[in-house]
Amino acid sequence: MIPFDLAEPRSLKGALKLLDAGDPSVRAFGGGTALMLMMKTGVFQPTRLVSLSGIEKRYAKVTTARDGSLHIGALITLSALGRTAAVKKRAPVIIDTLRTLSNVRVRNVATLGGHLAHGDPHMDLPPVLMALDAQVVTAATAGSRTLAVADLYTGYYATALAPNELISEIIVPSQAGRRSAYIKLTTRAADDWPTLGIAVSLQTDGKLIQDARFVVSAATEKPLRLQSAEAALRGATISDAVLARVGDAAVAEAELTGDAHGSAAYKMELLRVYAGRAVRKALAA
After folding, report:
1. The model scores a pTM over 0.70
2. Domain termination site, one of 13, 31, 51
3. For residue 1, what pLDDT is reported?
């Protein structure tokens, strides 16, 4: 491994000053679970790493606003997030997703901000947070900005973040009246990389679906909302026929890719079948 400098600032402001927008070999990290793998395989060779573990503790906490929204610090570990009572109460789909997100050793170290910023389309929480209409708050020396998680991803391992910009907070709006679910399909262990991920969030009035968000991931270059599947659900009362139309609409719109986890055709059939199952899981939440 090529030698590099390690900086350990005590504040977010100090960390931002250590980043260099013109030098991609300077990188900040929270838990570093993905970064260390990239370094070991030679994919990434840093000249300087900036550890965020010593900055203000408020960036690792969860608070609830008066409007019912959750404000989650980007440095909270995935294990701590999974134990947070406010998240369990207001966005239980996040807790359910974390149960099969990698293994406990990774979850004990990996942070939510790093999980989102990495840009890997196989990550489990980005599609879930997209379905919840969540936002990220970023920080940079030039100032902060807020953008939808749906706008964070621009391509395969690509995000809208500048090299000297960090995620500082994730905001999940009130989910009152909504039911959400995530289905993760794997070809190996339950906590392995997903072959296909489907996240669904529904606004219901009795048996009528008033609004729907339908997100597919893992088999795509980035998490994608499928508007045709959402349109098939909106205004419908669930039946086998409706769910079949949802599956057909999802397959017609999605452009899935094959890999070691399965061919594109195989994943298309998974999407056709599990689209309806994800909707039923959300309705049962």
Report:
1. yes
2. 51
3. 64
